[in-house]
Amino acid sequence: MLAYIDKIREISRRLLQEGTVDMVMGFRKGTVPMMNEPCFVKTPEDVDTFVWDSNCGINLANYLTNRQEKIGIIAKGCDSRNIVTHIIENKIKRDQLVIIGVPCKGMIDRRKIQALFETEIENVIEADGNITIKGRGLEKTLNKKDVLQDNCALCIHRNPVIYDELAGDLVEEQKDVDRYEDIRKIESLSPEEKWRYFDDLLSSCIRCYACRNACPLCYCPTCFVDESRPQWVGKSIDSIDTRTFHFLRAYHCAGRCTDCGSCERACPMGIKVRLFTKKLEKDCLELFDWEAGMTLEKRPPLDTYRPDDPDDFIK
Amino acid sequence: MSGLGFKVKVYMMKIITINKEDWAKGLERLCDSFRLFGPVKQDEFHNFRQLVKGELPDLNLLNTRLSAKSMVYPQSEKMFEFTLDENRDDHHILKEIHKDYSPKAVIGIRPCDARAFLLVKENFDTPEYKDPYWIKSYEATTWVGYACNTPCSTCFGTTAGCGPFHEQGLDLLLVDAGDYYLLKILTQKGENFLTAAGWSSKADSDAARHEIETLKRAAEEKITARISTDKLKDKKTTELFEAPFWEEVAFACINCGTCTYVCPTCWCFDIQDETIGLSGIRMRNWDSCMYPIFTLHGSGHNPRNTKMQRVRQRFMHKLKYYVDKYGDGIQCVGCGRCIRHCPVNIDIRKVCDLMNNFEA
Ligand code: SF4
Ligand code: SF4
Ligand code: SF4
Ligand code: SF4
Ligand code: SF4
Fold first, then answer.
1. Do residues B113 and B256 both lie within one domain?
2. In contact, A129 and A94? CB cutoff 8 Å
């Protein structure tokens, strides 16, 4: 994965030199371990600020919404699927974009890694599928496979589904992945147990909305939780209001969520918010044979109607 | 002022040694006269909450995920209650809600969070305006600080007017000296706390002071992150406001507000009425300048309508407006929380340097 960077810089430089795009969106090196910062570059000289490693988990499609420029964008599998969704939903035009596809091998979970150690991690070096952690009196090498973000460990679309340039050879997709073990477990709980489960899950939520704001799908000019006339949801950290926010947001993402994991990655409290969206992803797959963002040719199940729908109630 | 200086000097003389068994016993005794609060680990991080009798604060931590500000200024705080039932004489009248302002002690607050209260006080306790909830709660509290032997890697306290053994805003300072604690008494409140705890083994003050000084120096040396703030106050506000770097600084920001919610010095709130049936409460909730609706007018106009404007507001408030208004440095104590928890790695240290070094 690290090897992609030369190619990413080369393509970006060319696009900027030739004036094909006004800017390229990518990542620059972060100031703390296991963090990179989304950034844009507008001149060929600046492309060397781009980096690529296993800390580029934030979904860059989020930065495309309603932009007017011609944009080069570095896209992992999930970013590319959210770009597709963005195009279908008229948030950006296909011909505004030059998509630099990056076949992905998964992003690492900084919280999972920190939780393994008592000492604060101060430096992280990545090489050959291994992650070496350093801190005061601490040095340890982990297998990257063991510390992936949960969504990356289960990802079955690592290759970009739409691209104009490629920064590396396509990778082999993971096979025989059981994507919904956790969801089936929750489904099997009794209503009371579910209630308690969600209460626990959300007990530390501070309603900051980082999950929502990190999500490329959540582009509504005014989110329902921010409406004041009428005010649908209270603004305190009352557990019912908090739950309402999460449940409703998940429904708004049904058939659109690509399980990119940006929401979960962004949450300052480490809440597993993907559990909500994944349930709906599972339903969409089982009921409509639908995976979000795989093609520009079809509209998502919840904004379309087919006369030959097999269900009677709709006729 | 000189009276204050004198007082501080007297109390600084006193340092107590507490072995770790007596620590637990003292805390148990304190439960009779104080409500105790301290850091507790839940899931993968620590936060402050009330301790039940016999429960110890978990002092095996770098710092809490959220700051200690909720100890005085909770995220959602009820202020008044009211009824809309017109059959009742008191309908539509706001009535104060009773709250517990009995003595409490916050144990294990880091020096950065303690100093942060003093910055916030500039806003909640002024000659013209007094926030009754904040003041009563703050004054009911005894602050038992916990010196940082191992500061977080993102800490830049020593160049933000604070530091790992900083004493401002604390009543006592607890120092982990390995097999035992040293407790430095800083105020009369601290003295009362000590009496209630019943710890009595006075340390040889010269030796103890030397020991603390050594640990302090070692801790300060571990802090490598630095900011420069010296030129901020002489910059022209309008020039900083118009500086060309804001677009780039703001690009990655998702306006999530995490930086302001985790920050010990961010103080903004929003007042809301909520009703269930005919009864209602008026409450205030934390708010954040990073949210678009923070400045949305009733007319629909929004003076800070873009992300860049909001990001600029946060940094200008902390690093320029506050500096100019209060003449007490920046509105930041260098705890580094916003840096650690920003999902897109926007780093106030970088922005501060951009501002401090900016030439129009
Ligand atoms: S809900 Fe989460 S996982 Fe789904 S697209 Fe949005 S950020 Fe990605
Ligand atoms: S990011 Fe986390 S804490 Fe913030 S609203 Fe979402 S779940 Fe709650
Ligand atoms: S935490 Fe970061 S992304 Fe969120 S509002 Fe603050 S600066 Fe922006
Ligand atoms: S601005 Fe950041 S570093 Fe400064 S006090 Fe707030 S959270 Fe801490
Ligand atoms: S930075 Fe923003 S949220 Fe924090 S105190 Fe200033 S205006 Fe309020």
1. no
2. no
The pLDDT of residue B163 is: 97
In a domain, B129, yes or no: yes
Query: Which residue type is seen at A250?
Result: A
Give the nearest partner residue to A208 out of B251, B258, B349, using CB atoms.
B258
Closest-CA residue to B217 (of B147, B152, B299): B147
Query: Are the C-beta atoms of B341 and B264 separated by less than 8 Å?
Result: no
The pLDDT tens digits of the residues spanning A155-188 come to 999 999 999 999 999 999 999 999 999 999 999 9
Structural domain boundaries enclosing B347: 237-267+288-356
If asked whether residues B259 and B325 sit together in one domain, one would say yes
Ligand 3 pocket test: pick from B251, B256, B313, B338 the residue with the most ligand atoms within 8 Å of its Cβ: B256
SS3 A222: coil
Question: Contact at 8 Å (CB) between B170 and B111?
Answer: yes
Ligand 5 atom 4 nearest Cα:
B266
- A183: its two tokens: 């969801």
CB contact under 8 Å between B256 and A30, yes or no, is no
Complex ipTM value: 0.93
Task: Please choose, from the candidates B95, B53, B47, B41, the residue with its C-alpha nearest in 3D space to the C-alpha of residue B71.
Answer: B47
> Are residues A205 and A271 in contact, defined by beta-carbon separation less than 8 angstroms?
yes
B107 lines ligand 4 (CB under 6 A): no
Residues in chain B: 360
Rounded to whole angstroms, the Cα distance separating A125 from A132 reads 5
Contacts of A208 in chain B (CB under 8 A): 256-258, 261, 288
